């Protein structure tokens, strides 16, 4: 049946716009070569298929993998090997970078949104964004005192097969590409220690006079989750140039939000070794939060400035002047870098190690440039070895990982283990069972004790658990905030802001 699979794959490529009629024979021959097929009759295949409905891409690729395994083209049937091989196959359908960049440029001339709409659809069509996995993610919204927060339990990253882990450990280490964000990933075959990227295409853009590239995340946490990365493999750094580049980006793509993880461990992102930003076409909860109080920047009186009503410590700036906004952002960053307030347990450095930095986020709002500056500090103590401004131990049953850019903006990315744990928890609560009977629910027992009084005969346990998870997430964000949401914390925050008045 491999000849039928080849026909289906080519037909999919044409219907999804990956290949044209001019490419059909060429791509068919590439696939015949890959599978060692020397007899191919399209008319016979069409007669055999009759009036059957077209099958989804995942079904076609599954059959191709079965064939590849039966012929020894694939040696092992593991998740990693499947991903490596089906990506290779999709690479045969994916146009070269020059064609993709030309198409993007032509569509951008119509409108930025036209270009990104096409590029996002393209990334899904090539199976670079595996939509069949992303739909499995758990997502919901819940109201909190800070407005509606967005919660997701991410299930789209495939779990490691033990056989793959062993093989990866035995494989020869390579420094090419240097990391998952480097431009050398475009078209890279991959291996057990590095995902295949034959179906990956990137778009060059210029920010702050430097070469960057636009791509989408293969594990999109939200709509059009994009990554913008430096041409060079250089470390993350927050400075005036960062603000300038973020503002250049939203001028180029005004329908997108863009931000940067902080540049220090604990409060930074998972990849600090490569300068990059993240954004997309998504309204994050932070964007819906309003000013709580305002203050004047004496050096920039025309810029609207204030503290945002948000669980973390956020200064928001608005201006029609991009350069002034970058200058004002840099002024606040420089002042924060060297700021110490022992009463608020904020230390700019200890033993020469810096602790203060900023997580910046830029967007357009009503024709104005808007910059959110989230104050961060990564100090640790013996009592808080993971960070003083890090999720506290009471919340670790839900969230223990660092709080990065996406979560700062109000979208929780929770570990995959929670899907099964919360399902079992719901069943045991509904049945009145002992939550301490095993580790899966015992870790949540104290948490449930704190809110089980809300349960009555009309309670939707499923929705209540989801709302309480969101409450935990708001608490996690409060933990990450350098100024606490109380009278003492508010006064300390205002004390810092008075430095600019």
Distance between the termini: 74 Å
Number of strands: 15
The rough form would be described as globular
Give the low-confidence spans.
Answer: none
Q: Gyration radius, to the nearest Å? A: 25 Å
Number of helical segments?
A: 17
Overall average pLDDT: 95
Provide the spatial order of strands within the biggest beta sheet: 3-4-5-7-6-13-14-10-9-8
Percentage of β-strand residues: 15-25%
Structural class: alpha+beta
Strand count, sense and barrel status of the largest sheet are:
10 strands, antiparallel
Bin the helical content. 25-40%
Tell me what the structure shows.
With 501 residues, the chain is of the alpha+beta class. 40% of the residues lie in helices and 17% in strands. The chain has 17 helices and 15 strands. It has a ten-stranded antiparallel sheet. The chain has a three-stranded mixed sheet with strand order 1-2-15. Strands 11-12 form a two-stranded antiparallel ribbon. Helix 1 (2-15) runs antiparallel to helix 2. The radius of gyration is 25 Å and the shape is globular.
Set out the fold topology:
Blueprint: H1 2-15, H2 24-35, H3 42-49, H4 57-70, H5 79-91, H6 97-110, H7 112-125, H8 131-134, E1 138-144, E2 147-153, H9 162-170, E3 203-207, E4 210-216, E5 226-230, H10 240-252, E6 257-259, E7 276-280, H11 285-288, E8 291-295, E9 304-308, E10 314-319, H12 322-337, E11 349-350, E12 353-354, E13 356-365, E14 368-377, H13 405-408, E15 411-414, H14 417-431, H15 439-451, H16 461-480, H17 487-497
Parallel strand pairs: 2-15
Antiparallel strand pairs: 1-2, 3-4, 4-5, 5-7, 6-7, 6-13, 8-9, 9-10, 10-14, 11-12, 13-14
């Amino acid at each position: 049946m491999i000849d039928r699979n080849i026909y289906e794959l080519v037909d999919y490529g044409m219907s999804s716009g990956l290949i044209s009629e001019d490419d059909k024979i060429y791509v068919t021959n590439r696939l015949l070569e890959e599978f060692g097929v020397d007899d191919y009759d399209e008319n016979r295949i069409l007669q055999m298929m009759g009036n059957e409905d077209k099958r989804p891409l995942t079904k076609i690729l599954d059959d191709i993998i079965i064939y590849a395994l039966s012929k020894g083209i694939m040696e092992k049937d593991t998740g990693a090997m499947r991903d490596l091989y089906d990506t290779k196959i999709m690479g045969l359908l994916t146009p070269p970078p020059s064609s993709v960049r030309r198409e993007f440029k032509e569509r951008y001339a119509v409108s930025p949104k036209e270009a990104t709409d096409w590029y996002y659809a393209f990334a899904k069509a090539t199976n670079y964004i595996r939509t069949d996995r992303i739909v499995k993610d758990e997502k919901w919204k819940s109201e909190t005192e800070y407005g509606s927060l967005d919660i997701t339990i991410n299930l789209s990253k495939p779990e490691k097969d033990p056989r793959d882990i062993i093989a990866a450990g035995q494989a020869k280490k390579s420094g090419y590409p240097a990391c998952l964000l480097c431009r050398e990933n475009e078209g890279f075959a991959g291996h057990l220690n590095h995902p295949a990227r034959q179906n990956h295409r990137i778009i060059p853009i210029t920010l702050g006079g430097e070469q960057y590239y636009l791509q989408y995340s293969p594990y999109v946490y939200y709509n059009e989750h994009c990554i913008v990365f430096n041409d060079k493999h250089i470390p993350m750094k927050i400075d005036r140039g960062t603000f300038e580049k973020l503002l250049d980006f939203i001028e180029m793509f005004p329908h997108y939000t863009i931000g940067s993880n902080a540049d220090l461990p604990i409060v930074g992102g998972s990849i600090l070794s490569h300068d990059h930003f993240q954004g997309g076409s998504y309204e994050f909860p932070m964007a819906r939060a309003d000013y709580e109080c305002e203050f004047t920047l004496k050096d920039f009186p025309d810029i609207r400035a204030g503290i945002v009503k948000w669980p973390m410590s956020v200064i928001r700036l608005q201006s029609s002047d991009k350069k002034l906004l970058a200058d004002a952002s840099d002024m606040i960053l420089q002042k924060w870098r060297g700021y110490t307030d022992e009463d608020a347990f904020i230390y700019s450095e200890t033993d020469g190690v810096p602790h203060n930095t900023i997580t910046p986020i830029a967007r357009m709002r009503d024709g104005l440039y808007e910059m959110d500056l989230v104050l961060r500090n990564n100090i640790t103590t013996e009592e808080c070895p993971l960070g003083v401004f890090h999720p506290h131990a009471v919340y670790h049953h839900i969230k223990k990982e660092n709080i990065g850019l996406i979560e700062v903006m109000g979208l929780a990315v929770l570990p995959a283990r929670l899907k099964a744990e919360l399902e079992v928890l719901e069943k045991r609560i509904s049945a009145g069972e002992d939550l301490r009977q095993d580790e899966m629910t015992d870790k949540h027992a104290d948490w449930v004790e704190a809110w089980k009084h809300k349960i009555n005969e009309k309670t939707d346990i499923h929705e209540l658990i989801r709302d309480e998870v969101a409450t935990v997430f708001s608490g996690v964000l409060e933990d990450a905030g350098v100024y606490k949401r109380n009278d003492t914390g508010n006064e300390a925050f205002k004390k810092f802001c008075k430095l600019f008045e």
